[in-house]
Amino acid sequence: MLKIENLHARVEGKEILKGLSLTVNAGEVHAIMGPNGAGKSTLGNVLSGRDGYEVTAGTVSYNGIDLLALEPEARAAAGVFLAFQYPVEIPGVNNTYFLRAALNAQRKQRGEKELDSMAFLKLVREKLKVMQISDELLHRAVNEGFSGGEKKRNEIFQMAVLEPQLAILDETDSGLDIDALKQVAQGVNTLRSPGRAFLMITHYQRLLDYVVPDFVHVLADGRIVESGDKSLALRLEEQGYAGVRHGAVA
Amino acid sequence: MNEIMNEQSSTATALRDNAAVAEALGRSYSAGFVTQIEMTGLPPGLDEDTVRAISAVKGEPEWMTNWRLDAFRHWQTMPKPDWAKLNIDPIDYQAISYYAAPKKQPKSLDEVDPALLETYEKLGIPLHERAALAGVAVDAVFDSVSVGTTFRKQLADAGVLFCSMSEAIREYPGIVQKYLGSVVPTGDNFFAALNSAVFSDGSFVFIPKGVRCPMELSTYFRINAQNTGQFERTLIVAEEGAHVSYLEGCTAPKRDENQLHAAVVELVALEKAQIKYSTVQNWYPGDENGVGGIYNFVTKRGDCRGDDSKISWTQVETGSAITWKYPSVVLRGDRSVGEFYSVALTHHFQQADTGTKMIHLGKHTKSKIVSKGISAGRSSNSYRGLVKMEKGAEGARNYTQCDSLLIGKQCGAHTFPYMEVKNPSAIVEHEATTSKISDEQMFYCRSRGIAEEDAVSMIVDGFCKQVFRELPMEFAVEAKKLLEVSLEGAVG
């Protein structure tokens, strides 16, 4: 589904990604771990097309198309979703309205029929139930006045409604207490399916106790330096990143 | 019968929706067309004879002519106001024609020239009552005269008087003489004095004691003739316990010359009366290089004359090259309430200096001001507001919220709040914010699939929510679309 080859990217003139390669197949859950400043969030931002990230070399093929050539909204319509590390507030814009506009904008780009309010509301009700999220979130403005946990839950809820093929979770676990973490993890697990892949960017092993990944990668200094299964995450927890990086260089 | 009415009104709405879509696709000022119709009028120029001529053509009584002449003489002695943050080329008052009207003066709606009906049809304001928007009575003012007023009979049955100002002067001189100029005196300011001298028409509303007006009333102002100024005068009186909601809309053709619009609106609310006045102002704003557009100098003031009365102004201002407008409320009666909700959007080279005045005289009077300014392009957008607590305003309160949103780097937003508090028990609160549409917000929307322009509309709409929900439904939809069209090309 996703094939990243030798990806180099710069932010404000500084090279952050230095030859990153990664292959993700449908149905797989990949965890990307690594120390601060390794380029984890940059990877998420480059894949979803944020301004200010300049790709200087390499390719990203998504379902056979050149992902980097698409505008952010076209990537979204093609099924790429980024759960933000810091979800953005949009004052005065109702959460439900926003989500319906997003879903219909995507459907329109894909040449599908837009959902009317009744059909959309039905969909939202279903998803709320599955995700065990209270409908109180729907009546508020997008992320306005939300607690950290509510913001992250809202991201997962958006993901559930938009049903992406490739979901990138950028430190969705950071700043969550254990109950909120469990709820977010449960949401992700519910959405796991053979047709959908996850790229979970995280600092800590903690999340991986609840969402068990198929692969764990260590990202250091702009490259994947080690890959393995979930046991790699446990080892990182014990030894820290310093050992891994040292091992990679050796 | 009811069913048929509903069906037709939904057709009318659908037509308006289609027009709005076409407008959005056409990416231009869709109300910019010119109506070809035989006109009559006065040549450019302004002196006492002009004032007399206007009064004569309207068949006005002598007291009215003298009232105008007094105003004119006063005007000649007045300096032009220059305190607003506006750059205005000098206006040549002798180059303007002060009266223009369609040659054929209809006696009733059935006799209105088809070209005029078509004009209003195109603007989404059908004047035939069978096609008209259900529940909204319209007075249509074309250049200097009212061309028709719908639903008059239904309103008359309820005791509501709704007609053109010219007609009111002839038919209800007692009421007009009692209230005209009682809120905005002829010498109030330069533009109000000019208006008092040469106003040609406008709307008149009188809601007698205890009556709740059975439908929304509205006036649609259209400037068509070239080199003509529009000077309309509106007077709304709500007697004890009466309620009325009034809407006002405005458009003009695209022209390279600036045109002058100087209106006066007076509202009088007696004891326990309530007046809600909503405006969607879409005068031609000029092109993207700042050529042409309407100069909009308007004096709007409401007088809460009776205890427990309430006057509420809601305005959405997207048009005009220059806007100079401060809808105000004099809170005379005890416990009276004044409100001002405003969205002012400027783009390209538009300049707006707008706000309100809340003058608290009575005890325990309350006022609320919510102003939302949106600036794009190279425009300049200023909020100017006065909150005055006079000596007798025991326990009076004001709350002001003033937010500015900037789009792009070349526009300006300014806030000039003035406060005068002479009663120590009065409470005045002021909150102000200035924000930009952030790259973060844009990327968040786009990463969810929403295109750039739609994201801007959505963010702006959210910013204006507090004001839009004060508008009657029909108008809120209209206002939202208008903002979208006005913001085209503001990003990217």
TrEMBL record, chain A:
An example Gene Ontology molecular-function term: ATP hydrolysis activity
Similarity comment text for this entry: Belongs to the ABC transporter superfamily. Ycf16 family.
Protein name (Swiss-Prot/TrEMBL): FeS assembly ATPase SufC
Keyword terms of this UniProt record: ATP-binding, Nucleotide-binding
Record has Transcription as a keyword: no
PROSITE patterns: ABC_TRANSPORTER_2 (PS50893)
Stored NCBIfam families: sufC
Domain ABC transporter intervals: 2-246
Residue intervals passing through the bilayer: none
CDD domains per record: ABC_FeS_Assembly
